[in-house]
């Protein structure tokens, strides 16, 4: 390959010339086309600590996704026993001991905000580490690639198979691969719908074709999208569809840790056999032997030696590949490593490298994560399991009775978030001598079923001559007759 060895400035490495730059995907071929055609990427298998870490994370995350719907959690009689359940019929979200109602959607919003700030924090500390290890697209793509390698072989075998004419062997391999891919995609969609209904029951209904049509439709949609995105589009999703690569530039700086080619050590690139001779002659020779192993193992086809690029997902596989080559050559590992751009410049100037994890932007994001997380935990720990709301009659606002007393009509709504039936006593403050009669509760006990909402019709009477304004503040309070838990609501008593 024709190259020009330069002493790179910050963020630059070897420059590729002419057609070689087009082949490497740096610029389109010189044909007048605005965009380069997509090159099919065949990532080569690699071993190393980052590849092992990715396998562990893949097993853990997929295990959680596929198995959590089958975990049980006893919430008492009449309550669902699935540990994690989104019950759309009742409008409930169950997460082990936590139960959220539609009125508590603020917790869901808080969780989304917390996830966003956590992602910002991760990006400021270590770039697209989320994309490289935890993103669902990455996890399922890794799984699909593992199936592909198992059936069709590693990179060179797959390239040869692509170029080979169709034969029984090629057809069999392709059918087997795509069948397994579709099976994984189908179970991915099937696992998702299990979060919305009792998992064992829904599995039986799906198998006997008694499940609701919406369940089959959701599984079909997720099967198609998973098969397409993880099996065929792969790096296209990370490069073009996902907005995160375009956002991360605003969240990182020169002290952000990222997969970095240490050009201060690697340049100028030269073959291993020639490097020793050049060094003995006192001429510069970098540790990079231009073997391109870092490129062929990259799932997005990035040449990390060209500097940090938008398609790079920071997965660290190029680190494992480069370390393996350096070990075979008897050279120190870490030519490609998690490092910072600032450190490359420090080493070029003869200064010691420094990792600055604590700096203004990381501190800000950490405080935001802690603040939102702490607020949500406090809210969950102190939230009430009883709520009371009052709706005043609009027409008429009040009625003047024959004896001179004033009557207001009210609708009380009591929410009981506990899994047991409860009874409440009603008290009213704000108007002297006010009497409240609740329809259907002559003894004054307001009974509400377990995990339920109950409405009561109430009539409030103010005696004749009571000191009333046109709108007098009114406080209504309910008290659990067993536990003493209270809830209150405010309204106004209307008068002439």
From TrEMBL:
Keywords assigned: 4Fe-4S, Electron transport, Iron, Iron-sulfur, Membrane, Metal-binding, Transmembrane, Transmembrane helix, Transport
Residue span, 4Fe-4S ferredoxin-type domain: 278-307
Organism expressing this protein natively: Methylobacterium nodulans (strain LMG 21967 / CNCM I-2342 / ORS 2060)
Parts of the chain that traverse the membrane: 52-71, 105-126, 179-197, 209-230, 363-381
Protein name as annotated: Cytochrome c oxidase accessory protein CcoG
One CC-aspect GO term: plasma membrane
PANTHER family assigned to the protein according to its UniProt record, in alphabetical order: FERREDOXIN-TYPE PROTEIN NAPH
Annotated InterPro entries: 4Fe4S_Fe-S-bd, 4Fe4S_Fe_S_CS, Cyt_c_oxidase_cbb3_FixG, Electron_Trans/Redox, FixG_C, Ig-like_fold
Domain of life, source organism: Bacteria
PROSITE patterns xrefs: 4FE4S_FER_1, 4FE4S_FER_2
GO molecular function: 4 iron, 4 sulfur cluster binding; metal ion binding
Listed Pfam families: Fer4_18, Fer4_5, FixG_C
């Amino acid at each position: 390959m024709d190259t020009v060895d330069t002493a790179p400035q910050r963020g630059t490495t070897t420059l590729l010339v002419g057609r070689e730059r087009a082949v490497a995907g740096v610029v389109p071929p010189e044909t007048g086309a605005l965009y380069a055609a997509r090159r099919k990427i065949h990532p080569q298998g690699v071993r190393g600590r980052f590849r092992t870490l990715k396998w562990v994370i893949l097993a853990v995350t997929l295990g959680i996704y596929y198995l959590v719907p089958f975990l049980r959690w006893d919430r008492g009689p009449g309550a669902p026993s699935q540990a994690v359940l989104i019950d759309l019929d009742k409008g409930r979200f169950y997460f082990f001991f936590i139960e959220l109602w539609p009125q508590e959607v603020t917790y869901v919003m808080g969780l989304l905000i917390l996830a966003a700030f956590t992602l910002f924090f991760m990006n400021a500390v270590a770039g697209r580490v989320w994309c490289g290890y935890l993103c669902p697209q990455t996890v399922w793509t890794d799984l699909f690639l593992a199936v592909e390698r198992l059936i069709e072989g590693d990179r060179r075998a797959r390239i040869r198979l692509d170029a080979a004419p169709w034969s029984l062997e090629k057809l069999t391999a392709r059918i087997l691969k795509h069948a397994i891919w579709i099976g994984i995609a189908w179970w991915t969609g099937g696992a998702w719908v299990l979060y919305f209904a009792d998992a064992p029951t829904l599995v039986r209904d799906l198998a006997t074709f008694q499940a609701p049509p919406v369940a089959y439709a959701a599984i079909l949609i997720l099967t198609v999208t998973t098969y397409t995105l993880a099996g065929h589009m792969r790096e296209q999703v990370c490069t073009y569809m996902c907005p995160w690569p375009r956002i991360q530039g605003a969240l990182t700086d020169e002290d952000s840790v990222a997969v970095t080619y240490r050009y201060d050590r690697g340049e100028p690139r030269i073959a291993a056999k020639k490097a020793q001779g050049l060094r003995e002659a006192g001429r510069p020779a970098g540790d990079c032997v231009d073997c391109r192993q870092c490129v062929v193992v990259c799932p997005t086809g990035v040449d990390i030696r060209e500097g940090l690029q938008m398609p790079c997902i920071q997965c660290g596989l190029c680190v494992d590949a480069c370390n393996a080559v350096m070990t075979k050559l008897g050279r120190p590992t870490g030519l490609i490593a998690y490092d910072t751009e600032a450190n490359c410049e420090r080493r070029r100037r003869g200064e010691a490298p420094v990792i600055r994890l604590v700096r203004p932007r990381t501190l800000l994001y950490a405080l935001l994560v802690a603040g939102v997380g702490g607020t949500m935990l406090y809210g969950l720990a102190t939230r009430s399991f009883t709520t009371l709301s009052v709706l005043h009659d609009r027409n008429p606002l009040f009625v003047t009775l024959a004896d001179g007393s004033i009557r207001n009509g009210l609708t009380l709504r009591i929410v009981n978030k506990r899994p047991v039936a409860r009874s409440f006593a009603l008290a009213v403050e704000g108007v002297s001598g006010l009497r409240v009669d609740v329809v259907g509760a002559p003894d004054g006990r307001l009974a509400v079923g377990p995990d339920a909402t109950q409405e009561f019709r109430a009539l409030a009477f103010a005696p004749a001559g009571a000191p009333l304004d046109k709108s007098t503040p009114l406080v209504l309070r309910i008290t659990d007759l067993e536990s003493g838990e209270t809830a209150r609501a405010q309204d106004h008593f209307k008068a002439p």
